[in-house]
Amino acid sequence: MTNDNAPAALLKTLGVEIGVPLGVYYGLHSLGASDFTALALSGVFPLARTLHQFAKNRTINGLALVVLVTNVVGMLLTFVSGDARMMIAKDSIGSGITGLVILLSAFTAQPIMTKGLRPFLTHGKADHEAAWDRLRDNGRFVTVLRRSSFIALIMVIAGAAAKEAGEMVARAAEADVKQLVAA
Question: Model pTM?
Fold first, then answer.
C-alpha cells in the first residue's frame, strides 16, 4: 500500500493541532476576550482531541498533549504571578523545554525526531517503509537520524532569547505604568 500524501497528512495534523488553537485564540481575542480567556479556551480543542483519542484508541496524541500542557502551565503561571502575560511567555519556555527534550532524546534508542522524519523520507511507500525498518539497526542511519534532532538546539536558544525579550517588554511596560501613575 502506497501513501504518497504522508507529508501532506503530517502537515494537516500540524495545522489542526496548532492552527485550530491559534485560530481560537486570535478569534476570541479579536472579539474582545482577555488574553487569559482566549488562551484558556484555545486549550479546549487539544484537551478534547487528547481525551477522544485516548478513549478511542488508548493512545495519546503527543502534539495535542504538548499544546495542552503548555496552556495549563501558562494558566498556572498566570495564577501564581497574577500577570496574564505569563500565558504568552510560557510559549518561549515551552519551546525551550520541547527543544531540550528533543535534544536529549537524540541520545536514546528512539530519538523523537525519527517519528517526524519518517513520513517525509518514506513518503508512505511500502518499499521505503520496509527499507526504513531494515535500516533501523544500521549505525550510520541511526547517526544521521540523531543529527536531525540537533535542530532542537536552535529551539532551546530561541526559547532563551525570547524569554529575555519577554522580560524586557515586561520591564518596559512596568516603567510606563509607573510613569503614568507618577504623572
Answer: 0.47
